[in-house]
Amino acid sequence: MPVKNALYVVATPIGNLNDISLRALEILAGVDVVAAEHVQNSKHLLSHHAIHTRLVALHQHNETAVAHQICASLAQGKSAALISDAGTPAISDPGAVLVRQVREQGFPVIPVPGANAAICALSAAGITHPHFLFYGFLPSKAGQRQRELETLAPLPYTLIFYEAPHRIRASLHDMASILGGERQLTIARELTKLFETVHQCKLGEAVAWLEADAYREKGEFVVLVSGASAPDSAGISEQTRNTLTLLLAELPLKQAVKLTAEISGENRKALYQLALSLKP
Questions:
Q1: Residue 117 pLDDT exceeds 70
Q2: Would you call 250 exposed, middle or buried from its count of C-beta atoms within 10 A (0-12, 13-18, 19+)?
Q3: Is-contact 171 138, C-beta < 8 A?
Q4: What is the pLDDT of residues 119-173, one digit of tens each?
Q5: 187 bridge partner residues
Q6: Are 224 and 122 in contact (CB under 8 A)?
Q7: How many distinct helices (H) and strands (E) make up the chain?
Q8: Residue 170: phi, psi to the nearest 5?
Q9: Which residues contact 120 (CB under 8 A, 6 or more apart)?
Q10: How far apart are CA 223 and CA 149, in angstroms?
Q11: Whole-angstrom Cα distance, residue 159 to residue 94?
């Protein structure tokens, strides 16, 4: 049973309602209140498992006020749980403000692990590169989105994004233009649901694949893009390496790379990859 004065951060299914742990069900049934992003959506999950715990709405517009209420409840010896519409709370969803306030008040925050869309997609993609960067949702405005992608372009890690159906086509178009159409892409949509799809292709082929069937643009998306190929840094001179090392000790990585490229005339992408290996 849940302990008193504690907030439980409970992962819930991303689609299939049976993808929930026995511990999560026990906690949700035993706490005094469950804070949920959308009460109606969460009521469906709880009813499916015959749980009737009181639900309160916690979203981006009321999170601070509800956090104060829950902290006051914990101070009275009550227990609470935080859930999102799907998956693990406070990851590209509301909840982090509540967790921070509970911690600042000195109450325990107890995670109850479970479903996560990014990890679910990654596990089914067959990507052998061991490192990845979870970005979440790109900016909705085209200019901001393109600038973010330019920042991410040199990174050698698999890039993981979430995307909404009304932006998926524009986002994939920008990715292909900025990251390069030859990169490997995995599109995972409607994970664990009836029309689950995990499709792999080159990034430059993604928009055409979407447009071939109108249903492919429906649902929630996880997008995985292979990382940048490492430029050959073997030919970089020892003097340039020393310059880069000295600048990295004093400046942010991007600025150090920019100045080293200007000083030496070396390829900036190669210097960026070298800097990643040199930065402590």
A1: yes
A2: exposed
A3: yes
A4: 999 999 999 988 999 999 999 999 999 999 999 998 999 999 999 999 999 999 9
A5: 199, 223
A6: yes
A7: 11, 10
A8: -65, -40
A9: 14, 188, 191, 192, 222
A10: 13
A11: 22
Work out the number of other CB atoms within 10 angstroms of the CB of residue 194. Answer: 7
DSSP class of residue 163? E
The SS3 call for residue 84 is coil
* CA-to-CA separations, 72 to 7, 27, 102, 212, 215, in angstroms, rounded: 12, 20, 10, 53, 46
The pTM of this model reads 0.81
pLDDT tens for each residue of 198-252:
999 999 999 999 999 999 999 999 999 999 876 656 678 888 888 998 999 989 9
Classify 46 as helix, strand or coil. Answer: helix
End-to-end CA, the chain: 44
Question: In one letter, which amino acid is 95?
Answer: G
**Would you say residue 275 has pLDDT above 90?**
no
Strand order in the sheet with 221-225: 132-137, 158-163, 221-225, 184-189, 197-202
The Cα–Cα gap between 272 and 237 comes to 15
Q: Which residue, 186, 68, 180, is CA-closest to 132?
A: 186
Sign of the CA dihedral running 118, 27, 72, 107: negative
The backbone torsions φ and ψ at residue 74, rounded to the nearest 5 degrees and listed phi first, read: -65, -35
The DSSP output letter for 275 is H
Compute the distance between CA of residue 262 and CA of residue 269 in angstroms, rounded to an integer.
Answer: 13
